[in-house]
Amino acid sequence: MKSILVIGMGHFGQLFAERMQELGNDVMIVDENEEIVNEIAHKFTDSQIGDCCNPAVLRSLGINNFDICFVTIGDDFQASLEITSLLKEAGAKHVVSKARSDMQAKLLLKIGADEIIYPEKELSEKLAIRYNADNISDYIQLTQEYSIYEIPCNQKWVGRTVADINVRNRYKVNIIAVNHNDNLEVAPGANYVFSGSDRLIVLGKAADVFRLGGKA
Question: Which of 73, 81, 177, 193 gets the most CB atoms within 10 Å of its CB?
Answer without folding.
Answer: 73
